[in-house]
């Protein structure tokens, strides 16, 4: 149960705006109207956040590549895309660190400590999402009308899928 919650939490923190439900079983999205030729991935600038787990990093990197392709990011858009991708990576690292910290302490937490820990994670989600939204807003303003339509459709589909009730396990 904790692993499942961890995966959902990391996915939410990483990609809340563009990809709610990343680590959950969601049907793949249909191809978009955006051009399908992706630009070469840019090297990520160094980050001050701790490194996320290898699994989280792989998930984030895959999501970055997928979004880049789905949105048809051009070479001219790469600086803004790189900033957005770095925000995703930073969110992953920050959230991973919080969940690791929580996991190491949860066995001895009081109920009050548990609530404060959860509140800390919720605040981090909000802060991370705001940074991600700001980075995406800059990128979005550089997109062509076709790319914006593809982004709008993609985000709507993912929000709709995330809003669907999940069956209990």
Using brief descriptors, characterize the structure shown.
68% helix; elongated; 169 residues; disordered N terminus; mainly alpha
Could you characterize what this model shows?
This protein is mainly alpha-helical and 169 residues long. The protein has one domain (2-35, 51-163). Helix content is 68%, strand content 0%. It has helices at 2-19, 54-71, 78-105, 111-142, 145-163. The protein starts with a helix and ends in a 6-residue tail after the last helix.
How many independent structural domains?
Answer: 1
Query: Approximately what portion of the residues adopt beta-strand conformation?
Result: under 5%
Average pLDDT over all residues: 77
**Tertiary shape:** elongated
Helix content: 55-70%
Largest sheet: none
Class computed from helices, strands and strand pairing: mainly alpha
Number of helices: 5
What's the N-to-C terminus distance? 9 Å
Uncertain runs with pLDDT below 50, 5 residues or more? 1-47
Structure summary, number of beta strands: 0
What Rg do the Cα atoms give?
Answer: 17 Å
- Could you give the order of the helices and strands? HHHHH
